[in-house]
Amino acid sequence: MKKFLRLLLAGAAVLAISYPGYAGEDFDAIKATGVFKVGTEGTYPPFTYHDPSNNLTGFDVDIAREIARRLKVKAEFMEVKWDGLIAGLGAKRFDAVINQVGITPEREAKFSFSIPYTSAQVVLITRKNNSDIKTFTDIKGKRAAQSLTSNYGQLATSYGATLVSTDGFNQAIDLVATGRADVTLNDRLSFLDFKKQRPNAPVKIIAQQADASQSAVLLRKGDPELLNAVNQALQGMKDDGTYRRISEKYFGVDISK
Prior knowledge:
The protein is an alpha/beta fold.
């Protein structure tokens, strides 16, 4: 009898490890409520920001709304500072984070990623009159304006920069433009959009990494049904031209290519 109980307990332990919660639980809740809750910054143009009428908009916002439409539910956005987005997903404040979240091994160990929906190159941005910073290695000992837990913040630290905490892209650029920070490492697409809006801003790209990083929808582990549904939605958008139309709306080109 004791041996039988030990076998039952061992089997239960294996199931607990293999299936951390009911598979499909999150997706069932989304379908039941009719709402797909999305965590996003709202301060990261052109991906997630507020238009002149204060409406939340952007490339990632449109992608999220289209995913929700294909799931036959409505997208509901919760705006959170970058440093709280991943923790908020873990705490079940929302169902997904759609905010240019880079795919990293550390995040993959704790969360699930959809198929990538953007690829971006990291650029080094300095004040326009800068003359002493020419490469990424030159930022050692310099002040880099970054969100502390972002990929860009970690990269700046790896080059020896001292981080100046920011709430998002616009604040980082303003800190560099006003001389309160020496550099910011950020996304090339965001910078190009920024210069389109503010061509006279005293900032410039001084260097660019050759490798592109990929971003994807971040989900909690343990719900393969939701992951599969999000992947199907993203692939369908690329197949039927919806992704291209959203891309051209914000960037003027198809950034999937």
